[in-house]
Amino acid sequence: MAEFPSLPLFTDAYLADTTHLTTTEHGAYLLLLMTAWRTPGCYLPDDDVMLARYAKMTRDKWKKIRPTLVQFFRVRDGQWHQARLQDELQHLQSKKSQQSKAGKASATAKALKRRNRDAASVDDPLQRNANENSTPRPTPNTVTKVTGAEALSDDPKKMIFNLGVPMLTAGGMKPSQARSMLGKWLKDHDPAAVLAGIVAARDHAPANPVEWIAGRFRSIASREEEARSVSRAIAEQYRQMDIPGPQPGDLKH
């Protein structure tokens, strides 16, 4: 079974390269391409008996068209390799790997946010339930067994560099500059926010990922400052009215 069931076929390029083929040669060539695509390593054996079977023709007919079709392949070490076909396979394998890393990064960012939120909510060792019974509150050290995405959050910085460096270098940065920029973001922001920004930039694919992520940080900071300002204003209003009210920072937004 093929690693990727769908065979990429760019019709313009194919027809431009095969205008000299007969109908029979077209059919044989496409059958060879499909067989190679379904073979691990994406190659065909340099064996006329097998190649004739793949092309669905007799050995005599195969020997007549072999000189024409072999021009589309590189024959070495007893194997036929089609360069464009292998390029497409490597492209899809690379894309699959990037999507897997991005999925893990997204899961890690969500797990980090959950942990940070849970840690921030732990302000007393005990909480009261509806019956006023003392119930121990969980702390980050009493979290039960983690699995899947949560386990990936053990080293979020590594995930940030693994995903961020290739993205920033693809945008024109040198690897050293990309690592320096990621280090600066980690110094100025929470790792969960940095990872979330990188994943979001990967999804949106902006022309300048550095400016896009920096703008995202500024937007988040602006919203947080606005929320704090509203909280202070409401608290001041209560104070002016000499009515007990929430203190700045107590209001949740």
Could you explain the architecture of this structure?
- The chain has 253 residues and is mainly α.
- It has helices spanning 11-17, 23-37, 48-54, 59-69, 83-121, 156-170, 175-188, 191-204, 209-240; strands at residues 44-45, 74-76, 79-81, 126-128, 134-136.
- It contains nine helices and five strands; from the N terminus they run H-H-E-H-H-E-E-H-E-E-H-H-H-H.
- The protein has a three-stranded antiparallel beta sheet with strand order 1-3-2.
- Helix 3 (48-54) crosses helix 4 (59-69), helix 5 crosses helix 6 (156-170) and helix 6 (156-170) packs parallel to helix 8 (191-204).
- The longest helix has 39 residues, at 83-121.
- It is rod-shaped and about 105 Å long.
- The chain starts with 10 loop residues before the first helix and ends in a 13-residue tail after the last helix.
